[in-house]
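Quick log. Single chain, no ligands specified.
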Amino acid sequence: MVVGNPPWVRPTWEEGSVLAEADAMLGIVELKSMDKDAFAIRRAEILLVEENRTAYLQALTDNAALAYIVSDRVMYPQLGGTSNLYRNFILIADRLRGPKGFASLLHPDDHLMHDKSGDLREWIYPRLRRRWAFINEMKLFEDPSDTEEFGISVYGAPHEVSFMQIYGLYHPSTLEGSLGHDGSGPVPAFQLPAGGWDLRSHRSRIVQVDEGVLREWSSILESPGTPYLKTRALNPVVDQVAETLSILSQQKHRMEGRYDWTDCWHEGKFKLPDGYARWGTSQPPDLTHLVLQPSHFSILNPLAKQPPVDAKANSAFQAIDLSMAPSNMIPRTNYTLREDALSGGRAGKYFTDIRKWDGRPVIDFWRLAWRRRLGQNMARTLHAALIPPGPAHVDTVHTLFMTDSNRLTALTAGFWSALPFDFLIKTLNSGDLRSGLVDRLAVPAYPSTEAPILTRVLRLNAVTQPYRELLREIWEPAMQSEGWTRPFRHLSPIAIGNDSWDANFPLRADEARRAALVELDALVAISLGMSSDNLAAIYNSTFPVLRKYEYGTYFDASGQLIAKHHQQAGYQQHKDDFKNLQAYLVGEDAGDLLDRYTPPFHQPDREAEMHAAYAEFSERLGE
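-> predicted structure:
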């Protein structure tokens, strides 16, 4: 038996630490914050002393030798020429454990998700017996951050793939109890409904992984032809979620080859002195002058926020109240385009240098925009919206258009805005969504749900006049008969009677927008072949922050939101409104609450609403 906690470090050259032996200040001040010329002068002064120079060269030689040895392709062929020392120790421990022995190591799991570690995974999967994956939220280890992920992995002699996995552990007691649990009682999640880490033990936390499961993961994640043993790992929290992953793996129509994408302008080059824009908040005169950043949009909302006037580099964006937004609104931008770049019109520098699709500037297309960086700890991870022709964006935003039609681009926006797709992105545990992962996502190919999905996409996303062209293009008579499902029939009708857009077309009230998103969850689940229980399982197990926010959500009679948590507070909400609402509900003094809100108040139940919407849509569609 080999047991250990190997070092979680890469053999990198830490010049400041070496020079700090001669000048302690260089060990305190981060080198990247120092002036380069000043550092070079101080280093030269230190190395004039023979003793310092000898120590420096010895340290440099030792580091180079170590880096060469641990990344050597002959000694460690599975590492592909790169390494983190813990990966070397996995291979070394396997040599030490003996033919019938085991190695149990505590180390990060990033090699199971990294797209360039396929050779190592191919070696590991046949040897892996247990994978207990922890998140350091309870500070079991002091040095790593509270979001650091690590695991206890048990390795044995290679045989057919078969290992137990638990992902999302915060404390060892949850693991111990789950191994002996009988499977009864409520299924746990990341957090409890009202917030707080869910430490409950349960048999359902244990996911059994074999060759069939790896093949399903490979179908979801990897390009056709990739050996299943090289597939990246997925991280279902409970076995009911693993069932949903199995369903998603069976989707026949994928994005690969069906779309064009761009990151448009790289932010650093975009605002160089000789670039296309300068940093400075301004009001664009038209959409062509608008440069989008991730905070500008959220889920099917292209007018989520805008920078404040005279924004600084890290200024928080300000939320836009859709109920008050004018029909011709263009949000402020932090990148003011230079007039010399725009001079010459279509023949000028800006238009000739911008990325092209089929020879046309990407800004000429209707596009699906998404935030490239994924906030895994946020209520929702995937934020995507339709944007009209005109705006550009920096590379923290990516956009695509479906080469088939604008209609398919809009349908794709609906799919990306629903919980099943967000669940898949969360389960990938990636920090970015780039084209390699987009290739493997399902393409909408379910005619029976198209009109209901497009109706909700248009009512949510078409918030200003430019969207009238998209409405005119993709409207169809079937949208005239669309109606809310049972939980939302008290809301104003959602049907789209014709292809005309006016200021009353978009859903502006908080409650109506939330309702349309809940119905999209159900419609996309039906399209993908999921059951309503599958949908509820992924909501309960994979969206802890969203569940916490929903637990503290109320609406008044006019659809205004009153939220417990400031991150989702309604636009008109004052600091004490939620506290006053709780007082009102038990017959106590509610202060000035009723000056802004109209009773009665009600608290929604997202899980019950999804079940009801799923059942009604299934009946309507004859599923």
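The longest helix spans residues 50-70.
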